[in-house]
Design goal:
Blueprint: E1 3-7, E2 10-13, E3 18-25, E4 33-39, E5 46-51, E6 58-60, E7 68-73, E8 78-83, E9 92-99, H1 107-111, E10 114-115, E11 119-124
Parallel strand pairs: 2-11
Antiparallel strand pairs: 1-3, 3-8, 4-5, 4-9, 5-6, 7-8, 9-10, 9-11
Length: 125
Amino acid sequence: QVQVVESGGGLVQAGGSLRLSCTASGLTFDALNMGWFRQAPGKEREGVSCIAWRSSTTYYADSVKGRFTISRDNAKNTLYLQMNSLKPVDTAMYYCAATTVEGVCLFSDLRLGVWGQGTQVSVSS
């Protein structure tokens, strides 16, 4: 059974940092393109960052570029999202997603992949 589980969310003050983790089981982790999405109350789910398994090429939404860093540890079957300089607008439920589609990591492919239940990130001003 394929499963993706996020952890690491919490409450932090503006300017602070958090690191989210995502573990995937039931799939060959190092053959997955993976990424992070977020959804704030009343807003659509948006792609935050994505990493391709073959090239480790990364992509970031403009809103998080320079503040967030996506990485993966294939030996630990874990994906990370290091979030620095957090802002209240970053408050959202953060979701991890995985896809077996190869090549460039695309949010459109991830949306059709396997999702976790999400972890809440709240940033106070």
